[in-house]
Design brief:
CATH class of the largest domain in chain A: Mainly Alpha
Helix content of chain B: 25-40%
Number of domains of chain A: 2
Shape of chain A: globular
Number of strands of chain A: 2
Strand order of the largest sheet of chain B: 6-7-8-3-9-10
Largest sheet of chain A: 2 strands, antiparallel
Number of helices of chain A: 13
Largest sheet of chain B: 6 strands, mixed
Radius of gyration of chain A: 24 Å
CATH topology of the largest domain in chain A: MetI-like fold
Largest interface: A-B, 22 and 26 residues
Order of helices and strands of chain B: EEEHEEHEHHHHEHEHEEHH
Distance between the termini of chain A: 47 Å
CATH architecture of the largest domain in chain A: Orthogonal Bundle
CATH superfamily of the largest domain in chain A: MetI-like
Strand content of chain A: under 5%
Strand content of chain B: 25-35%
Structural class of chain B: alpha/beta
Number of helices of chain B: 10
Helix content of chain A: over 70%
Oligomer: heterodimer
Chain lengths: 303, 262
């Protein structure tokens, strides 16, 4: 008798080995994530014996080597928030505009060159971006705006924006290209200009993909370490108002990278750094879950 | 060419006509020297086998061929006597005067109301009461009002195929065009929905001039006043519909009508 699915016994041995390997690999991915969470929790939670979570999150001073040490995370959380928000304010419109240009305006031949080129930007190591920001962009901006120092929050935002743009462009462009050609034709046939068609039909139809692109870019910006460590000046002070962008600040990621090497194991300082790591992990998780949710929605269909 | 083509010039006012129209797609000569005139407030059907150039011809009236890479259109398209196939023509304005309904119903992913209001909004209509008025009038004209009046704020995607196509007609009517082009508007619909659209077309010709491309010979004979037969990019014969279906002048038309090819 013919059967579509051969029974397990009849299958070739190699196939079974490959299948088992794939299954193990898939399983391991889950194990790794869980293991990271477990170890983060293990090394982060003991800090709560030294200082309460509320006091930690709202504490205004981060000074772990002072006596007594201060583990206030507010300057670091706000530092991350400032730099990331600034990066999105610059990167989101820039990335979307670039995606619209590639998908809707550029002639097909230019499109074939532009998209890989933009995606190549994502492959540049972050330390190179940091280097360029630190040595070229920072001093230049400081001179133009008359700032005392070539390292400040907005510089981190700018460099991070450049780093987030390739992700935003790539994913947004995919979403825009997936919008059916018929929408464009119908819109034009109703007497819309090309710009009206783009802004009123094509971009709204691609919006879930575009939102996902923004969130992925945000994820990249918030987790970035090397660049911000190099260009933001590393001062754990609470940024205030818009002026805060023009002063040195410090992000959560930069704090871990800068201090982990000089910290004795299993001290409160060590545990506090792990707590920062745990918070970053949870933020990244949230951003990923939300962007995944946005991407899974069928492009263009209003729920 | 041997004998003069049996191309009729309809009586009464002519809204649009083409003179020596040619379309090339790259090196492919898709439409050859087509000259024909279209009567106001009548339905003209364009028939012919796939790839004969009838859709290409239809897309010349609102310059949709402009969107196709490598397409070249030469000759004249006279709308109310004025050539609209020139580089100086305001294509956006032209498309407001010449509406189009496509083969597959294609509602935008927004509410029914926003779909219909799309065209008027493009032209700067902002007042909500005015938009409501246009939406109702257009939906009534497309014989869809009673079915959707309670769900104007719902997404248009949820409508049935036939309703979607009538909504697309309403959307085109909301711009108040002079001419309505229909490119096989029923080919994706079931017989009942097709019947609704045909009824609607007969209503609409009181106010609009309709040119329809169809693969369905019965449809052409049921709804149209004039019929043009295309073959290999040429307009072979153009006459009153009864004449085409009862005693065409060209043997190739006869062969096609009788289903001998195509």
């Amino acid at each position: 008798m013919l059967s579509i699915r051969p029974s397990r016994r009849k299958r070739r041995p190699l196939e079974r080995v490959v299948e088992a390997l794939i299954r193990v690999a898939g399983f391991l991915a889950v194990v790794f994530v869980l293991a990271i969470l477990v170890f983060l929790l293990r090394d982060a939670l003991p800090i709560l014996k030294t200082i309460g979570l509320g006091a930690m999150l709202s504490g205004a001073r981060w000074s772990p080597t002072a006596d007594p040490p201060k583990f206030g995370l507010l300057p670091l959380i706000l530092g991350s928030l400032y730099v990331t928000a600034g990066a999105m304010v610059v990167g989101a419109p820039l990335g979307l505009a670039c995606a619209v240009f590639i998908s809707e305006v550029a002639p097909p031949r230019a499109r074939e060159v532009l998209k890989p080129l933009v995606e190549l930007l994502a492959a540049v190591p972050s330390v190179v971006y940091g280097f360029l920001g630190l040595l070229l962009l920072g001093p230049w901006l400081a001179k133009v705006f008359g700032l005392p120092l070539g390292q400040f929050g907005a510089l981190g935002s700018l460099v991070l924006a450049f780093m987030a743009v390739p992700t935003i462009v790539s994913v947004s462009e995919d979403a825009l290209s997936a919008v059916p050609r018929a929408y464009r034709e119908n819109s034009l046939a109703l007497g819309a200009t090309r710009w009206q068609t783009i802004s009123r039909v094509v971009v709204p139809a691609a919006r879930s993909g575009i939102i996902a692109a923004m969130l992925l870019g945000l994820g990249r910006a918030i987790g970035e370490t090397m660049t911000v460590l190099m260009v933001t000046g590393n001062a754990p002070v609470i940024p205030q108002g818009l002026v805060g962008f023009l002063k040195p600040l410090r992000t959560m990621t930069a704090t871990i990278a800068a201090e982990m090497g000089e910290t004795a194991y299993y001290t409160p300082h060590y545990h506090a750094l792990f707590m920062i790591g745990l918070i970053l992990f949870l933020i990244a998780l949230a951003v990923n879950v939300i962007s995944d949710f946005a991407m899974r929605r069928i492009p263009g269909v209003r729920a | 060419m041997e004998r003069p083509r049996p191309i009729l010039r309809p009586e009464g006012p002519i809204v649009v006509e083409t003179v020596g129209l040619n379309v090339h797609y790259g090196s492919f000569h898709a439409l050859r020297e087509v000259s024909a005139a279209f009567a106001a407030n009548h339905i003209t059907a364009l028939i012919g086998p796939s790839g004969c150039g009838k859709s290409t011809y239809l897309r010349c009236f609102n310059r949709m061929n402009d969107l196709i890479e490598g397409a070249r259109v030469s000759g004249q398209v006279l709308l109310e006597g004025e050539d609209v196939n020139t580089p100086e023509t305001d294509v956006v304005e032209l498309r407001r005067r010449v509406g189009m309904v496509f083969q597959a119903p294609n509602p935008f992913p927004m509410s029914i109301f926003d779909n219909i209001a799309y065209g008027p909004r493009l032209q700067g209509v902002r007042e909500h009461s005015r938009l409501e008025e246009i939406v109702e009038r257009s939906l009534r004209a497309a014989a869809l009002w009673d079915e959707v009046k309670d769900k104007l704020r719902q997404t248009a995607i949820a409508l049935s195929g036939g309703q979607q196509q009538r909504m697309c007609i309403a959307r085109a009517l909301a711009v108040e065009p002079e001419i309505l082009l229909m490119d096989e508007p029923c080919s994706a619909l079931d017989p009942t929905a097709t019947f609704h659209i045909e009824e609607l077309m007969l209503e609409l010709k009181q106010r609009y001039t309709i040119i329809i491309v169809t693969h369905n010979m019965y449809q052409a004979s049921r709804v149209s006043d004039y019929t043009g037969f295309f073959l290999l990019g040429e307009l072979i014969e153009y006459d009153r519909t009864e004449k085409i279906f009862e005693g065409p002048a060209d043997p190739r038309t006869d062969d096609y009508i009788r289903g001998r090819f195509g």
